[in-house]
Design brief:
heterodimer; A: alpha/beta; Rossmann fold; five-stranded parallel sheet; two-stranded antiparallel ribbon; 6 helices; 18% strand; B: alpha+beta; Cytochrome-c3 Hydrogenase, chain B; 3 domains; four-stranded mixed sheet; 11 helices; 11 strands; 44% helix
Chain lengths: 207, 328
Amino acid sequence: MIDDLTPQPPLRRGEGEVLPLPSPLPEGEGARKVRAATVWLDGCSGCHMSFLDLDERLIEIAQQVEMVYTPLIDLKVYPDDVDVALIEGAVSSEEDLEKIHRIRRKTKILIAFGDCAVTGNVPSMRNAFSVEDVYKRAYVETATLNPMVPDRVVPKLLPVVRPIHAYVPVDIYLQGCPPPADVIYTLLTDLVAGRTPDLTSATRFGR
Amino acid sequence: MARQITIDPVTRIEGHARITIQLDDAGEVQDAKFHITQFRGFEKLCEGRPFHEMPSLMARICGICPVSHLVASAKACDALMAVQIPKTAASLRRVINLAQLVQSHALSFFYLSAPDLLLGLDSDPASRNVFGLMQTHPDIARDGIRLRQFGQQVIELLGGKRIHPAWVVPGGVSEPLSAEKREAIVGMIPDALAIVERALPAFKRVFDRFPAETGTFGRFPSLFMALVDEEGGLEHYDGLLRIVDAEGGVVEPGIHADEYQEYIGETVEPWSYLKSAYYKRRGYPDGLYRVGPLARLNVATMVGTPKAAREWSEFRQLDPGAVLSSFH
């Protein structure tokens, strides 16, 4: 199925139905903070930098959520019971694929974060070429010494690059290259407050 | 007993990497490897696209330093078109490049390294990070946020957006700088400078707590490569590439960017997606060279502004030749 170039329809929660998002707010007295995570797959980290462009609002967000995993901190394992996750980047390698399935299992609200995650964007431009030709250009044609395709320790590239929803259901799509910091802020504060965010007029592809 | 330690993932970097360390039977480090585990194929996916798309496309190599890729690609396009860009455009490209140095260095120092240095290298990873720093050292965290913000705001004022600004184009920049925006940028400088002047002495005091690390972390003789101007002074946008050795001796005085293929080669290692660049005249691996802030300070023979020159001069006292430890 991965080798099949036929476009896969995005997985929907229910045909024609608008379902309310599960609120990430834990119920009950003395409830724990919202458990938030961010991950980058095959991206450039620009969406994460836009997240940091919250500037001092980052301090405010940090008080309302518990960051349980992000490349910006030194934790190695994506934990269970993540309430909200911002996932940047397309799915390009076998490692990305394994990660996105694991992340989906452990996450309540999964946000495809930025154009690479939403449409494939720049990484998917390699789909115009065979993966063999992509490897050859970098590691054979332009190598001065030892031309060869790396094949130890590193994850193999998938034949085509796909966005996240080609493999797992996505709860929220946040477009932009990168999505503006103000929209990220609105989205996170809405989710923490239990509101369903409406992003349709807030941002768009390729901005 | 011989065994392997794996650090996976490497955190607080852009991109994806793991480290494997081989210990011999005596528990001593026999080998260590840094494996880059991400590869997108920019050198192939650009084929067939119009050349003038390249700056904005190459920006997407990295969301922290898109300006570097925009500038390098735009300069290549200038050369393709065989044009000299207007002086004002070159000056404006310099300003956005400097703004990027400020924001990316602020990110590296305050968000990614400072937590380890201030909270202790062995403290709990769950709080040994920028969010932990917001609790334990709120003033320093705020300083870091504001310094990065300054750099990002200058980029936004010049280029229209903070990340992947399409303003740097083949032939120059796409819009001039208005008087209002110039005033705004100038107005932000005093606070940004004050942050740096607070942070530098604090950072120097931190070294006293890490004598072992300073003495060993990334501390090895190597070549260093950076841009210099005609006087051999610190450069960042234009000029010539210069290579010095660990003693600070000049190995290659000035390479024009368009001659780079005569001097720089790349080799493939089967265990990493990153190719290893090397100085061809010394072959591989003897020709390995370091680039970046440490290299820039080692290669330059002078720095053109008084406060920076004083700091640079003091920095170069750390070692008799080139400063070797990456901990600095």
